[in-house]
Amino acid sequence: MHGIVFAELQKYVNVNFGAATWFALLKSSGLEGKMYLPTRPYPDEDIFAIVGSACKATGKTADEILESFGSFIAPDLMKIFGGSMDPKWKTLDFLENMESVIHKAVRINNPEATPPVLNVKRKSQNSVEIVYSSKRKMASLGLGLIKAVCKHYGEEGVIKVTTKTTPDGESTIFNIYK
Question: Coiled-coil regions in this chain (predicted)?
Fold first, then answer.
């Protein structure tokens, strides 16, 4: 998992629960004293441990925490990658180009980064389908991001989420209608 995700998770925890909570989560995760630099990759297990500790501390599910976190980080990520986005884009345009522009830039700028591969199809003028397949199984984070993108552009969208089991594992399919 890329360090920027950890840096944003720390920011999310600090804003929503206070700075002391971040250190308590690290301690209860067995990661006390660990620092996460935004430019380096870290083991996926670390993020799962921190989210697991957050679940115990808040009584929320991992999906609830990840979706909330996804909504929280979207504005920062959109600022970071704003130069790669066409100012004429709206919600569906952004989502349609997320993999080819933003994830591609992440991979070029940080060869060790492994964002999920998204298969995106523009189904019509008013809909986009995103197939999220990742061993991380953090589709809830993606759902939060999608909701925040809709909010950013001031466009309400209907998001239908389905899960499909394939020979390679599980995929989450987001169909976004405007």
Answer: none
